[in-house]
From TrEMBL:
Source taxon at top rank: Bacteria
Domain Protein YjdM N-terminal: 6-33
Name the record gives this protein: Alkylphosphonate utilization operon protein PhnA
Similarity comment: Belongs to the YjdM family.
InterPro entries: YjdM, YjdM_C, YjdM_N
One Pfam family recorded for the sequence: YjdM
Ranges for domain Protein YjdM C-terminal: 47-116
């Protein structure tokens, strides 16, 4: 048994213990698997736009600066609205998956968009 058990996701009690492969809260009797606790920690990553607003799947964002697109003669202009974004763990620091009218599907960095 490790010294630092995770807190209970139901009541936030620090009095938890391991029993038959599950974690159990001694205060509210909530049971959960340790894998679920690790998944929750991974999901806690918050993606913010250029001005600090929290982004979520399905949001509409606006591009804040012109972006050159490889293979396309015209850039994505500042002020272009992008609807129905999806947050992903993309290539490098590209964390938004979206479709832009006239350009198609692509990934963007959250640092170049602002929540609309």
């Amino acid at each position: 048994m490790s010294d630092a058990q995770p807190v209970c996701p139901a009541c936030a009690s620090e009095y938890t213990y391991e029993l038959n492969g599950l974690l159990v809260c001694s205060m509210c009797a909530h049971e959960w698997s340790p894998a679920t606790a690790e998944d929750d920690a991974e999901e806690a990553v918050v993606i913010r736009d250029a001005v600090g607003n929290v982004l979520a799947d399905g949001d509409t964002v606006t591009v804040v600066k012109s972006l050159k697109v490889k293979g396309n003669p015209s850039p994505i202009k500042a002020g272009t609205k992008v609807r129905n974004i999806r947050l992903v763990d993309g290539v490098g620091d590209h964390d938004i998956d979206c479709k832009i009218d006239g350009f198609g599907a692509m990934q963007l960095k959250s640092s170049v968009v602002k929540k609309a």
